Amino acid sequence: MKLFIAGHNGMVGAALVRRFQNQEGMEIITRSRQELDLMDQRAVFDFYAEQRPDVVIIAAGKVGGIHANNTYPAEFLYDNLAIAMNCIEGARLVGVKRLLNLGSSCIYPRHASQPMTEECMLTGPLEPTNEGYAIAKIAGVKMAQLYRHQYGVLFYSAMPTNLYGPGDQYHPENSHVLPALIRRFHLAKLAGDPVVTAWGTGAPRREFMHVDDLADACALLMEQESPPDWINIGSGSEVTIKELVEMVAEAVGYPGKIIWDATKPDGTPRKLMDSSKLAALGWQPRYDLKTGIRHAYACFLSETAAHNLREGNGTD
């Protein structure tokens, strides 16, 4: 079976490669961004026609934290929409048997009831700070669903919660909250800074999951005969940003003081996924958050030492 993993150089794509590379009978197909621009429709269609994959997982996209989404909303909308459209339509044209499209928990309304079920999509306004990204991801989810309905193809989506782990993006300004904190506390520790300033109030609550747990969940979903049109993938537990900051400081070994800049945006007050549908299939995560953060920091150190720490523009 030929599996095309779109975005294999990103954190999620690399985790998927690790998960499937030793699976018997599986041939993994990958292309770097230099080899295949997923926003180029003709290039994507030609690639599909040449390679004829049996299965596709879309893990590619432009990603980033609050600052990046606020600063470049049009790029987050356009880039992610183009990738979804090209990868899904290209797969249909060559008869791909199964396609798993990876979305995001940000597709759900800002004030969705907690924990968020799959049914709450499109029931209220989105979080303004990442609206462009969310709209593109919603379009990808609906595209997979409507293709399945109209064309009879087994295209479906998964909504991961906030992810972290090996291969994360550590851009100084545009990374997500957890890698941003790892970098900040690491540099503060090296510099001997007595104080680290954290954004916001620390009150918002977030759910985090190790990227290798996501890869395991995707493998389980690939085995399902008739999976839902979209399904949540979350750890089932949440922490405040304040608790997260303290966990990262402890994992890094930062001994200084933490202060909070309440003039910075908090983002969505709470984001917890209802992953009961996935749990009913027999899945549960392997990493608790404290263990996962320690592992992520160890990966950060090894990637830094090997000079392959990802500090780019956030496109996987």
Description:
The strands form four sheets. The protein has a six-stranded parallel beta sheet, sandwiched between helices. The protein has a three-stranded mixed beta sheet with strand order 11-8-13. The chain has a domain at 2-168 and 208-236 and 270-288: NAD(P)-binding Rossmann-like Domain (Rossmann fold), CATH 3.40.50.720. It has helices at 11-20, 41-51, 66-71, 73-93, 131-151, 177-191, 211-222, 241-252, 276-279, 289-305; strands at 2-6, 27-29, 55-58, 98-102, 154-160, 162-164, 195-199, 205-206, 208-210, 230-233, 239-240, 257-261, 270-271. The protein contains ten helices and 13 strands. Strand 4 (98-102), helix 5 and strand 5 form a beta-alpha-beta unit.
